[in-house]
Design a protein that fits this description.
The complex is a heterodimer of chains A (125) and B (362). Chain A is α+β, with helices and mostly antiparallel strands. Chain A has a single domain (9-107), classed as RNA polymerase II/Efflux pump adaptor protein, barrel-sandwich hybrid domain (OB fold (Dihydrolipoamide Acetyltransferase, E2P)), CATH 2.40.50.100. Chain A has four helices and nine strands. The longest helix of chain A is centred in the C-terminal third of the chain and has 8 residues, at 117-124. Chain B has 362 residues and is of the alpha+beta class. Helix content of chain B is 20%, strand content 33%. Chain B is built from eight helices and 19 strands. The longest helix of chain B is centred in the middle third of the chain and has 12 residues, at 201-212. The chains are: A alpha+beta (125), B alpha+beta (362). The interface between A and B is medium-sized, with 16 and 18 residues.
Chain lengths: 125, 362
């Protein structure tokens, strides 16, 4: 059974987001890392780049395939988790502890389009 | 359409394999993980369920003549109990399929073809059959197939069938184990020493179960693809297809232009005039992965080709690819692969990604 944390919001494309004040940390879910298998590469954007809600901002790659990462909320990237560049396997070890990027949230009302933990859980099975 | 399953399907599910559709079959991608399975085959021994592949029996007085005139390779000097790689081409020179041909004798061969092409190949062969005194039979459902691959493959199989140790690369024989008959060749699709083992579906399951007790890593199609890619072996649908000729794919060792066969005229012309494009190696110079279908550009942003297969080689940081590239672009040239709207620097190189470990002498 895949882990789902109760204090996060989710996208149907298996990203999680943790919003605190006007910033958001973004990652992939345990379900995502499990379906991917061994993560061998994470392609993350540069600090300063901006993306709209549900736009692709990078990719996470297993041996077999690349999966696009989609932005849960619009915003500008203020930090990137560089540890994942040299150790992409951290995502397999704990997908919730290893965030991908941190963004400055542009429009807090967009969270209405995200999934609650229960709603996300229901999309999985 | 419902997916077909192999005789080992319930074994795959019980092992908790990740499954996917391949060639119309529900097949395992990986069990423990592609990285572990790739490494097991390079360092020890892994076993693959290849029962999805097609087996076509060819018998008759004209069997040799048929093979020589329908396929690209020359079987005249092949000896009994040897196998040889060959291709089927269209008149255009494009590839119908690539296959392994097992010679029992000059009037009896077994053709082993790609799962996704079995029906197409059988139709292609039978449509050219009428001038020849031969019989063709699609026996795919009567065969299971295992590929036992890796430096320890011989030690392991020897415990069950001691005589296999004397087979050399690209030779085969029939063996009996546990009251079941098998055709076993010293061959494979990984670049390692190993065996390809054909038996009835029932016999295949019994042998698989035995191998599971002998410390053999079950391996899925994921590792099968990274291993064959690293060893420089082509895959139909990637390095070859109906719009790519064997010469463009670097398979001239399997094409004998001195004798007539379907597609020869185009291939002769290509050889005389020189290739406009060919499959070549490519290595990324920045950390990323070049995948099948990505476009390759030169330093002036001119498109020069596309990726046919690309991986980060398991357990390394090396991102390598096969690419179909204009022949004017030589080895050592710096190029760019477009990956998610970014231009990633790469260099054209040879395809010797891995030194093959075939057992040519025993």
């Amino acid at each position: 059974m895949e882990k789902i944390l109760k204090d996060l919001l989710y996208t149907p494309t298996h990203e999680w987001v943790k919003i605190e004040n006007n910033t958001a940390k973004i990652g992939i879910t345990d379900y995502a890392q499990h379906s991917l298998g061994s993560v061998v590469f994470v392609d993350l954007p540069n600090v300063g780049s901006a993306f709209g809600q549900f736009d692709p901002f990078g990719a996470v790659e297993s041996v077999k395939a690349a999966s696009d990462l989609l932005m849960p909320v619009s915003g500008k990237v203020i930090a990137v988790n560089d540890a994942l560049v040299s150790q992409p396997e951290l995502l397999n070890e704990d997908a919730f502890a290893n965030w991908l990027i941190e963004v400055e949230v542009k429009d807090p009302s967009e969270v209405a389009k995200l999934l609650s933990p229960d709603a996300y859980q229901k999309t999985l099975h | 359409m419902d997916m077909k399953i192999t005789c080992l399907h319930d074994r795959h599910l019980k092992l908790g394999a990740k499954m996917t559709e391949f060639g119309g079959f529900d097949m395992p991608v990986s069990y423990r993980g592609i990285l572990q399975e790739h490494q097991a085959v390079r360092e020890a021994c892994g076993v693959f369920d290849c029962s999805h592949m097609g087996e076509i029996d060819l018998k008759g007085k004209d069997a040799l003549k048929f093979l020589n005139e329908i396929t690209t390779n020359d079987f005249t000097d092949l000896k009994d109990k040897q196998l040889q790689y060959t291709l089927l081409c269209e008149e255009s020179g494009g590839v119908v399929d690539d296959l392994m041909v097992y010679q029992f004798n000059k009037e009896h061969y077994l053709l082993v073809v790609n799962a996704s092409n079995t029906i197409k190949d059988f139709k292609w062969l039978t449509s050219h059959q009428s001038p020849y005194d031969i019989e063709l039979s699609n026996d795919s459902e009567f065969f299971g197939q295992l590929a036992l691959q890796g430096p320890k493959a011989v030690e392991i199989l020897k415990v069950l069938i001691p005589e296999v140790a004397s087979l050399t690369f690209m030779h085969f024989d029939t063996f009996v184990w546990n009251h079941h008959e098998f055709i076993i060749s010293r061959s494979g699709y990984t670049g390692e020493d190993g065996f390809e083992i054909y038996g009835s579906p029932k016999a295949t399951v019994v042998l698989w179960d035995q191998l599971m007790t002998l410390n053999v890593e079950p391996c899925g199609l994921g590792a099968r693809d990274t291993l064959r890619f690293e060893a420089g072996l082509p895959l139909y649908g990637h390095e070859i297809n109906g719009f790519i000729t064997p010469l463009e794919a670097g398979l001239s060792f399997g094409v004998k232009l001195h004798k007539p066969f379907i597609g020869r005229d185009v291939l002769l012309k290509q050889k005389e005039q020189g290739l406009e494009r060919r499959i070549i190696g490519l290595e990324l110079l920045e950390r990323n992965i070049a995948r099948d279908g990505y476009i390759v550009y030169d330093a002036n942003q001119k498109m020069i080709g596309y990726i046919t297969t690309g991986y980060m080689i398991p357990n390394t940081n090396k991102a390598l690819a096969n690419a179909m590239i204009d022949s004017s672009v030589k080895i050592g040239t710096e190029v760019f692969v477009e990956i998610r709207n970014k231009m990633v620097k790469a260099v054209i190189r040879n395809r010797k990604f891995y030194e093959k470990k075939y057992k040519k002498e025993v």
